[in-house]
Amino acid sequence: MSDDDRPESLEARLRALGADLAAPAPPPADVARAVRARLEDEGAEDERARRPDRRRAGWRPSPRVAAASVAVLMAVLLGATPQGRAAVVSVLRFAGVEVHVGGAGPLPTGVPSPLPGERRVTLEEARRTARFPLAVPSALGDPADVRLADGGRVVTLLWPGVRLDEFDGTLSVVWRKELGEPFPEQVDAVRGWWIQQPHGVSYVPSGGGGPHEERVAGPTLIWQHRLVGMRLEGPDRAEAVRIASSAR
User: Where does a domain end: 87, 103, 133?
Assistant: First the structure.
């Protein structure tokens, strides 16, 4: 068996291919170590199985070694190229909101449609019908408009330039958000998360099925008030924290 046919040479060729892809940095050391260990283990096992036939044919990688090699190549591509990094998504689930960070496409366009079963109600009716205890931030006073949706699962309070969604999100995902970078920031004052950039947001109906039509959301604070999920959209971070802290 020639040196060029050995598993080590295969790994070297894959590394060289990664270097030719104009990546900004080599694969992480832990990835490289894991790759080499996998190749060596698979190569040794394959050599033991094929040892009686070595004189009849040159060494070729077994299907498992070939599969490991493909995994190496994918790790190089995904970890070392901008396109690969953009495809890697982190998921944050908090207070009924599922946030996908990374890999977001263009922001949605078009006019957003109402939530399922959405209707205008009074604050008193919303308190009676909602599946959870409704909270109103004292920093804003009574809302200018109140909407009830999805059989009382969501209540939306509206003021000029401010939207507050309250929802029963203790056991299921109610909202899904698609972000690019950066990752949301923790907000210790209300034990929540702050999303600075505009992003896509869609509603996940209680009856199942795909998410409701996506729309663009502005900067948003997510937190949990007692057992109620809260999503405040519109103010800057400092003002959003002040409003959230006044919810009663």
Answer: 87
Same domain, 129 and 170: yes
Region 86-111: mean pLDDT is 84
- Domain identity same for 79 and 104: no
In the chain, what percentage of residues exceed pLDDT 90?
52
Q: Hey, what are 108's tokens?
A: 């949605």
Alpha helices in the chain (DSSP H): 7-19, 29-50, 63-80, 82-87, 123-129, 237-245
> Using CA atoms, how far apart are residues 20 and 206, in angstroms rounded to an integer?
49
Residue 73's domain comprises: 3-87
State both tokens at 191. Answer: 């034990």
Q: Please state, in angstroms and rounded to a whole number, the distance separating the CA atoms of residues 220 and 94.
A: 13
Same domain, 40 and 108: no
Q: What is the pLDDT of residues 147-202, one digit of tens each?
A: 999 999 999 999 999 999 999 877 789 999 999 889 999 999 999 999 999 999 99
Q: pTM for the complete prediction?
A: 0.65
Tokens (6 digits) for 160? 């000029």
